Batch of 2 targets.
Target 1
Amino acid sequence: MTYSVAILGASGYTGAELVRLIATHPGLEVRALSGDRKAGMAMSEVYPHLRHLDLPPLQKIEEIDFDGVDLCFCALPHATSQAVIAELPRSVKVVDLSADFRLRDPVEYEKWYGKPHSAPELQKEAVYGLTEFYRDEIRGARLVAGTGCNAATGLYSLLPLIRAGVIDLDDIILDMKVGVSGAGRSLKENLLHAELSESWFPYSVGGKHRHLGEFDQEFSKAAGRKVEVQFTPTLLPANRGILAATYVRGDAAEIHATMQAAYGDEPFFAVLPMGEVPAAKHVRASNFVHIGVVKERAAGRATVYATLDNLTKGSSGQAIQNANLMLGLPETEGLMLAPVYP
Amino acid sequence: MTYSVAILGASGYTGAELVRLIATHPGLEVRALSGDRKAGMAMSEVYPHLRHLDLPPLQKIEEIDFDGVDLCFCALPHATSQAVIAELPRSVKVVDLSADFRLRDPVEYEKWYGKPHSAPELQKEAVYGLTEFYRDEIRGARLVAGTGCNAATGLYSLLPLIRAGVIDLDDIILDMKVGVSGAGRSLKENLLHAELSESWFPYSVGGKHRHLGEFDQEFSKAAGRKVEVQFTPTLLPANRGILAATYVRGDAAEIHATMQAAYGDEPFFAVLPMGEVPAAKHVRASNFVHIGVVKERAAGRATVYATLDNLTKGSSGQAIQNANLMLGLPETEGLMLAPVYP
Amino acid sequence: MTYSVAILGASGYTGAELVRLIATHPGLEVRALSGDRKAGMAMSEVYPHLRHLDLPPLQKIEEIDFDGVDLCFCALPHATSQAVIAELPRSVKVVDLSADFRLRDPVEYEKWYGKPHSAPELQKEAVYGLTEFYRDEIRGARLVAGTGCNAATGLYSLLPLIRAGVIDLDDIILDMKVGVSGAGRSLKENLLHAELSESWFPYSVGGKHRHLGEFDQEFSKAAGRKVEVQFTPTLLPANRGILAATYVRGDAAEIHATMQAAYGDEPFFAVLPMGEVPAAKHVRASNFVHIGVVKERAAGRATVYATLDNLTKGSSGQAIQNANLMLGLPETEGLMLAPVYP
Amino acid sequence: MTYSVAILGASGYTGAELVRLIATHPGLEVRALSGDRKAGMAMSEVYPHLRHLDLPPLQKIEEIDFDGVDLCFCALPHATSQAVIAELPRSVKVVDLSADFRLRDPVEYEKWYGKPHSAPELQKEAVYGLTEFYRDEIRGARLVAGTGCNAATGLYSLLPLIRAGVIDLDDIILDMKVGVSGAGRSLKENLLHAELSESWFPYSVGGKHRHLGEFDQEFSKAAGRKVEVQFTPTLLPANRGILAATYVRGDAAEIHATMQAAYGDEPFFAVLPMGEVPAAKHVRASNFVHIGVVKERAAGRATVYATLDNLTKGSSGQAIQNANLMLGLPETEGLMLAPVYP
């Protein structure tokens, strides 16, 4: 059976990545595409690499006929998403890739995003889209909130350890090295090739990165108490990928065993042998996650390394994985594409 | 029906690319892998990005049991290939990715590769693997010789024009800009990141590039007379891709129409609207070819631009496309993966 | 003796490059900097790499006191430059880095730049800033028009050959591979890291690149007849540098000898041994030019390769070289910085 | 006055960087160059970017006449250096860029480098080359041991804080992001462009990086007690630069004030305003160091960011700074070259 999907905000990188993945997904077909500023254009004009596909033109959202659309991917900017989703027919399932429905607490939402939420009712209904940890809720959800890409990387690095109680909850530092596509196709000076190539620098420093809201919510929930980690990303001269070093206090062997237990049966995860470390390129353009655990020389210190592709497992691949569950399709369908190397 | 394949020389980039493509190919499965210097290692040690796959270990070629192997991809170094293929059971079909069987004339082979061919009988039997131009022969072949990656790019740019007689045969210049993976995973100083990043330079200058042998053979055959083009590649700080500018004398509109006629029905080709030009990234990690035609300001001058991914359409994707034909599978099976962007 | 200079348009890359070079130039000091949209900011806010220098703040042009300014570098956008320069005191020497005064013929200017020139009197007065070919005129000039960076590369490749009459004037093709900084710090989608890294593509195709105006002017003048070359640049995933392949008809040995005769005594030029080719990185961040000549396999065919750094020898370094001449300083002063490698 | 220097091991990147810097240094001239495997070649064959310089040919060390050589830079591999330096005339001052004389304690040397030191007498005599902290000793030294490039970055980040007692000595984590030229020009698979571009990965994990020996020595000495930090570098797809995030416990304002006090008068240092962070490219190809301090959201937590160019301030620029002191030249002579941007 083939399900029809609409992609709202298809002119951004996550939109293009959704189309790329759906192109060889046997259970999904693209029924409609929206791109407000590019409405009227063919997708192949905006993204010539999709030229071989027979795709509907970019439309304004209000022009889309949602009859026959089974599921809608919303890859719209933050804040826009909540307004648009509130207007969609209730019969359409929704996977939202924006930040709008990630935080359950409206107070937290306002704290991190700077204004009140406009659709608090929907916010309650939304299921957090970290598939491996919310699988059952996602299966039955109408609205799934895709995680932040950095958030996913950090959550995968820590959630099993917090749940199992094998690390000190008050001394966790996340240092992420991230490619530039996470910032989208926006025209900002520091995203120019001439600025970024041969450069790298931290950003959103000092506890200001918005994905901290997701960390606080999920880690505190898992621990049953307030947990606030330290997290800073560094932007790298690379297009795709996130590699996180998570500095923790705990027994490395116990941490490694906990990771193996948590992810051993997961189709998209590989826990490397103790002491081995992943490389960002080993998962590029794929839905896979590689995790390594290293014992440090100081007693009781360990480091967890995790890598994923921000556009695939960190957003659009995750979205399709969730859509598969919501539509009753096999969870891995369309997502077993091997990483592209070199 | 699933066919079993062996990949000889799986530790190189074209070997890894074959495995990547076969991973989601419904009609092929990897039965055996060889890698002489890495025999005994798991493929995931050599290429951790393939860690999620259940693959046979790397063996020495002589350890491989070819019983039950339907087709063998040979991704071995030049000269090694001819010796190995001569020893394979005749029941095994072969797609060779080396240069060993591309040139029909032993004299030409020796001229470009510096020593006599050791398997001239096989050389006669081999079919040149430029799928769109040798489809029928490939279907019936036991041994197909994959083209050079630069050769493919140039042949796609020119063969329809030479066949149609719409360009001057004595004034053709091919200027190719190529990514570094075409040079393989070999340890050479000028392939180091520190050397190549922020640098670019021509190589094999002065009519010395070996793919000229393929050009001479195929263009002369198509023209029914001797044709010798001028060709120089420039190595770029990029991993995948070839973009060729072909400078010709001819009527741009006629050239464009000829291209449309030649490639209009080809599943992997897009001929862009007149005056538009392709970008290397628009076909990255895919089997697609984008072609553009531009009219120059000087009367009777035009430029043909063509781009493809050297590891996919330029070698391993082409190899699978040919294998599909040889095995009676649909030609595009496993090859419709969309390009990875950005 | 130290001369005082102003830099108008200091917030662009050529402005920053001027400051970089002047920082260790013993004969020049920066008296004033303009940057209209960034007026009021410190240069170190716009370019933190210049933080160690004691520089005047960015001002609006009309706020600058030109008393005591010996020479003004204008790194303003095209069309703005002509209006601004017309208002400068006649006592201030000017090196203009824009395109405004490169073309002597107002008709040609309008043809390539799309509107009439607003300061045709100044246009007459301007000396074309290709130092090695206009040294004497530059020494006595008040207004020098810096060349286009692609134009400089092509002119260096061809002017000696055209003057010496050793190549066919009607069959010249310039294929340039260029880094992205030539496009400036402007916010354009195709200049984003995510778009350009791992991509490359031709632009201004079909005889539309504006530097053709400079080629037509200078080559025709050198030849004493109309010469119109073919020229297309390809944008690469690299920040600095231009490498030109110039395809010509002529005797390679004679071409090589002509180059050696033309550039043998030039302090910034190296003519490589016959058959050797330059690499872009060998001149990076320097004022040097490397030139190679290659004999092609077709009789009477040769290729000239030339590389320079577009921001240094192609614009700001050239500008300082010209300023040195105009101010009576040694021509190479401040410009002997060795290339940065790797 | 001009001093004559020899560079032993000139065919590596630090050797080439020494030549680049000396090219415009008014007080130094290159008298001799060694490069064992490349003896007999011109430096311009090994590094064509130095083609414009009049340099002595590469020789074997034993062929060099040290008469008239005032100072010798040793850019030889570890272990080789100690044997060579032991044979040099005592009248020649030496700046060693290898690891051979960094560690004062022979036991520590053997622990980190795996074999006994062969010149323990020289080891005692050597002064550690962290200029800003050993200025007086360096002035009078005959043998100065250049620091590791990562070591320098970490020492600059922490030494003032440890001396001032403003951070917790038992909870220090150094996360460094480093460019590839620190690994030298060696032929290793993971240094290939195809491997590293679009990839990044930690290495020497688990407390195994040899620069920890320098950290242990210098931090313990500064603290007057044993201090063992945690340190892991991540290799990035970039050529030059190191950016360290140092995670500490301490009052951010106090840390910032301590940094300003320590570095306020240093010619090569900039301490950014509180909360601002450096970028690797802001110091590229220069001898400058940029330092930022950020207050974290957890009480008593701060992060120190420091960036320098591994080939300049991290090795060859530092070496020249030290040589200037040893020869009685102004400390900054030849080293005020502005960073290259973009």
Target 2
Amino acid sequence: MVEKRNPITVEDAIKRVMKYRKTGEIEYIDIKQANGRILASDIIADHDVPAFNRSPYDGYAIKSSDTSNASTDNPVVFRVVGHIGAGSVFQDTVKEKEAVRIMTGAAIPDGADTVIMLEDTETLDNDQVAVKKQMENLQNISLAGEDVKKNTVIVPKGKIINPGIVALLATFGYKNVPVSKKPVIGVIATGSELLEVDEELQDGKIRNSNSYMMIAQIERAGAIAKYFGQFSDQLDTCIEQMKSAMTEVDFLITTGGVSVGDFDLLPDIYKHFQANVLFNKIRMRPGSVTTVAELDGQLLFGLSGNPSACYVGFELFVKPVIDTFVGRNQVGMKKAKATLSVPFTKANPFDRFIRGHYELTGGKVEVSPSGKDKSNMVHSLAEANCFIHLPGGTNGYNKGETVEICLLENV
Amino acid sequence: MVEKRNPITVEDAIKRVMKYRKTGEIEYIDIKQANGRILASDIIADHDVPAFNRSPYDGYAIKSSDTSNASTDNPVVFRVVGHIGAGSVFQDTVKEKEAVRIMTGAAIPDGADTVIMLEDTETLDNDQVAVKKQMENLQNISLAGEDVKKNTVIVPKGKIINPGIVALLATFGYKNVPVSKKPVIGVIATGSELLEVDEELQDGKIRNSNSYMMIAQIERAGAIAKYFGQFSDQLDTCIEQMKSAMTEVDFLITTGGVSVGDFDLLPDIYKHFQANVLFNKIRMRPGSVTTVAELDGQLLFGLSGNPSACYVGFELFVKPVIDTFVGRNQVGMKKAKATLSVPFTKANPFDRFIRGHYELTGGKVEVSPSGKDKSNMVHSLAEANCFIHLPGGTNGYNKGETVEICLLENV
């Protein structure tokens, strides 16, 4: 009973999935936990930066008009009437021939309109300082609002919060930061050949690696993984397990069981649920049997049991849904061009996504496959930081040709 | 009392800091939490992969010698004696003209030495199948150990664990994963101009942004931040606060107070502790007053209160110590070459580290400064994903010239 399936393109598959995307909610977290999260509202400046006219140097705040004749030969003597560090405010007004010793970052006192640097002065006795240089109005003053004007959007929502953005959040008083709630993604493994990670090997069986890989991919993509363990071999039990899992998650991933093999349960489960199967065959390698279904608006991702196909299926179809849920402005993998450092001589009847490793070498982006490209080789996944995308319908690629890569890290 | 300081090079400064590096311990965590941590022991294969001779296809396991005369015109008829899915084992031995229906991933039964694909057969009545093709010994069989041999080092320690590595950990039975313990890094802010993040603005004051930025940088670098709040203005209280903080952390960062300004307390604190000041002046911009001291082998990082200088100081001097603590094989920022997309016309008497944003554009690495390069502009930090490093003693750089960049993300 080999079922006939209708293969569609990768693009079309992504489009069909994205029809059922959801948007998550905002939650507020402490600024100390904000790094790496997605900013859910624009950051708005609650004040000018600087908030006041500020000294960029250590020196003396004076009236520039008092220096109109100052020179090395003709120093002008000022009386030092105050001494303020950053954070302090001079309470008086600076008058003619008066100087306030001022530190970097401190507010310019009223009456003063310039700061003369320490090295352009000479300290005399009796709280007096000699100025040997002409100064201009507003010289050496960081003006209020010079960096940032109040009410400006400083950082637009949808960005991944990094340490620099954290600094801005702190500057503008965001003790609690609006971030996107992470979606919860369920993971269920199928396959009677699977042992759990802590089981001893048995004849004919392998340990379940896909589920843990998925959990890590889900976390890397900025979502929360919920692992439900392995499915029963029994259709009835399976159906119950899946039904229950769906109520606890935003999206559900199953691994394995989507082929047309005699022991593949997923097609029957979808049938039982009367789920809307968006596609069950894609013109791509690996992962051609990747299946996505929708039930009452909830996406059920049926990824292949083959580790490479499973990995690719996640990044191509699940990640964009996560990105949308958290409101990232980059949806799906970031793409770039790279120079192939090995040839791929075979023609590509289908879109191929080859696990690759790119390096920045001498100002150029170079990419090579990460390990032999055998779809059952978990091994080559460890070094992968991108996919090499060879579009379907193309001939082989030579070494040195430019290809598209899809970046795997979220930065 | 402007103190005379001896400037040293960035390289020399890093060397002096690294003399007091420490190595952390190993801890074991659940594989579900392993993503992003540093692998602390080599991953060793506890079995061959495949662990047994395995079928890469859906088909029939047979003896190749039975097909020596098979062709489309002369099909050879086999009796189907079993049917095994992945994870099942055929308990008998395959004899002449016997076939076992086999699924992808299942173990090759004893007696069989090849798998004929479904499409090269024809199913007849009475549990019989016709084979129309000659097969060779071991054709279509994934041999035990073909991917990975038992006892091979699969992934060397020191790597950041990614989803592919998690898959390998699961395959080889690592339910508990050896990872490097994260160092604890204390953060203390100094500066009487500083308000806390949730305080209303006051005349002459700014909110403390450096501490939160540091916390985010510490987390990005893979360590744990412990924030001790702001220092008192009083030397005595300061000394007590710092002494107590040192007992709770592996490394301690203070921000601000390291200049030669009249209100800068750190030099006096180092003196009080009789700490070994490794340097207090570096031939670099920003961050020339960055100070690092050592007390009984513990590093005290005195970063500048200027946000950009603080940021740069952390990445240059604190990050390598974290990388070493966790045993990463990449110590310090990863470097690369990039093409400048704007000119830097001024000469560089000192090493400059300009916050930059690099992009992969048409197969090339292009970099530009992220925002105007004013050292008091927090703003430009938000977009930075690298530093543009202009070495001291160089003239200006033109647009299109190649420069070194230091990458800020740990991937």
